[in-house]
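Hey,

The postdoc asked me to send both predictions to you directly instead of through the lab channel. I've kept everything plain text so nothing gets mangled by the mail client. Protein one:
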Amino acid sequence: MVARGGTEMKWTMVAAMTAVLGAAPAWAQDRPFDPYGDGGEVTYRDPMTGFRVEVAGGYDRLEINYVDDDTKYYDGADGIRYGGEIGYDVAIGGTVLLGAYGGYAGASTKRCDDIGLSIELCQKAKGEWSGGVRLGLRVAERAQVYGKVGYASMPLEFRYNTDRTTETYAGMHFGLGGEIGLGSGAFAKAELVATNFRTKDRIYEGLNFDRRHAVAGLGYRF
């Protein structure tokens, strides 16, 4: 249930989302009679809407690739991804859910290569910020499948022996996921996301620089 003190914040966030996305969500539903009360009414609360927070972790991969004479060449590094996300979702009709989100994630993804004469070149992914919108399809009262699209920004640290430098890579990401309610506002989720970073004026200029991750997590709706 949403506390009274959060009502103004709730309506402010919904108004902003509506202005940006041009959405016209239907908020209210009929209030059923409360047979256990004194003849008053209770408000129905859609379990798939409102403010949410979540944490997730799983597999992460950074990959550089290019195509030459119809042959794809690639190399990359694997690691563990961990992070969190906040979001807000509204219902459009009975089956469609529209939401906005923002997140932050770290990862253990790192690669070091010996390039000779005791010289080592290392690359490590730093914390990634992301944000975007998602569109869900309700498959049960407390379950949905969704697609998401957004923007991500990730610093990549290069270490050449004792020298260090950092470049920030940014690009669009696309993902697919699913969510199922666990009761009392809690839910579980799983998703796959792919990001294509722009490389213009960067060390990896002229190459495709991608990031993919598969994570599972737990969250709570207020």
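Protein two:
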Amino acid sequence: MIRVLIADDSAFMRKVLSDLFNSQSDFQVVGTAVNGQEAIEKVKKFQPDVLTLDVIMPIMDGLNALAVIMEQCPLPVIMISSATQKGTNETIRALALGAVDFVSKAGGAISKIDTIKDEILAKCRMAAKAHARKNFSASKPLVYKPKLPSEEPTTRRIEVKRRTGYVPAQRPTLTRPSAEPVKKIIPGTGKRLVVIGTSTGGPQALQAVITRLPSNLPCGVVVVQHMPAGFTKSLAERLNSISSIAVKEAENDEIIRAGQVYIAPGDYHLRVVPAGGGERKILLSQEARVGNLRPTVNYMYESAAQFGRDVVSVIMTGMGSDGCDGMKKIKATGGYSIAQDEDSCVVYGMPKAVVDAGLAD
């Protein structure tokens, strides 16, 4: 039985979600909360398996509540967000703070809940199996560039304290990697290409990796993150704002440059192809979805395999096995592969498939 706590300031949404979960034999609603402060209290009281958390709520919003929850009593959280641009940006921040996944209200309207109810159930079932309790502890703070100012203005912090007594935490400081880095010489021509694939839990994993890359990295990095259209742009902008290396959403026919990270736009497959003169470029397409996914990691990996020993492929947290078939082709042409370890994954699915197939170096 999956025990769920629902946090939403809308009585209608609380009722709809409660009815939805209670209609399922494997869910039990243990409580509801009308704001972030109450959500924190009830998480501690009921210790649910999964929390659904609205972003915009009175007294304490979902982001501030999430920051406290992931520090004091971490558990799998599914954000229920608006499809507006503001909602998209807030969702990306929530994923960076440790939320497992999100569901976007269709058109931003709660009246269209029927169109997303299956997605809510599927993601909550997945979240109940996630490693959020172990992965998102206070001992593993997020990684930020110290020189950047806090995203929470001082006036905002004062106002929140005045109303709730809660002061949003300052940005965490740089933390050491959870595992010792592997020091190994990887053969190649010197014109490297790094390709990264990830899904559930990816935004936080990408943040941990990309914020450690130097601005003068002597190769380009191409990323496929399973995420809807619109959200990948916000993800790229956020990572760019907190990283030394430049990060952007990939564009069609774009030449891959050293010292640049390119994130595949949602709803587009991404391939890497030769561009002449030893260069490589990105091709985007809306060819048929593969396993209901677009973009897919396999699509990117398979295209990158043609560059042989110059390719370093990385597979990170995510459900399923997307990337495994493409990794086989990369390995067959002499490329190098890295899989995220189980202990640091939110969902040890995609890396597990690669490890079980004997493909991880």
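Summary for protein two, as requested: The radius of gyration is 20 Å.

Thanks,
C.
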